[in-house]
């Protein structure tokens, strides 16, 4: 599954910086879709801390209940960009949709939950044979579940019953009321589930360490908007840095969009099973593609390399590094990108 390939990056970065890192003469208007999850904090931070505005962007944030609805809005042109899992955009790509991944938003952060009385019976993937399992349609955790079942020799089509529900609260309710024996949710809903007496028995990070989740996706027809997408990624990279260094303010920013207790936000956002890199994670997406196609969850002859438009991320990083030469984070991310290109 772990296929390596050489990334074809277009080194087309422009080093003429906006002043100071934004405020171009023309304001770009972006309709940006998100899910109500702590993992999408970069969007909230970039909006609330003014990074979007400083980069010459007017961003309208649109909330969606699940990845299926969100990615359909991007495909239909109702959104300019959005972050809706990994499986949702790849399934649409497999069907011929003109979608491009330009960056990452989050990774890992899916969890298998069950009732306390079943923990002695459900502790691993094989234990789901003969069970009823609730998932959210087109969620990354759903795809990982099916691949891991396939890898364990359990036919996810025949050996268990999978219910595709609308959102994590519906999954929690199905498990809690006994309509399902187990379910797959993402943060912060794993902690919500535990607050309702359920138990987390597995994490996607343990099953597939480093796997990608939400990718930032745009329409292929919008790729000529080079300055707009570079500005968006500069804002998100600055938000990534801010969130890593300013925990209290980041929690406050998240709370404006996800009205949860501060400590619940803090514990679900700042934890090891949530990756917050803006890097597109090409190798991880490629591995994910191999997994879902190998499990029969996705059928396609398309080349996964064609889903990426990577020059915007490269350019945004180089522009930030040129403007802030003493910032070690930009150098580290550029070095990481170079290592991926060489692998």
| Pattern of helices and strands | EHHEHEHEEEEHEHEHEHEHHHEHHH
Runs with pLDDT <50, length 5+?
1-20
How many angstroms does the end-to-end distance come to? 15 Å
- Report the sheet with the most strands, covering strand number, pairing sense and barrel closure: 5 strands, mixed
For the residues shown, what is the average pLDDT?
A: 90
Quickly count the helices. 14
Strand order of the largest sheet: 2-1-3-11-4
Describe it.
With 343 residues, this protein is of the alpha/beta class. Helix content is 41%, strand content 17%. It has 14 helices and 12 strands. It has helices at residues 41-48, 51-54, 67-75, 87-94, 140-151, 168-176, 189-195, 204-207, 226-245, 247-255, 262-269, 282-294, 311-323, 328-342; strands at 28-34, 57-63, 81-83, 99-104, 107-108, 110-115, 132-136, 161-165, 182-186, 198-203, 215-219, 274-275. A 5-stranded mixed sheet has the order 2-1-3-11-4, sandwiched between helices. The protein has a 5-stranded mixed sheet with strand order 8-7-9-6-10, with helices on both faces. A two-stranded antiparallel ribbon has the order 5-12. Helix 5 (140-151) links the parallel strand 7 (132-136) and strand 8 (161-165). The longest helix is centred in the C-terminal third of the chain and has 20 residues, at 226-245. The radius of gyration is 20 Å and the shape is globular. The model is unreliable at 1-20 (pLDDT under 50).
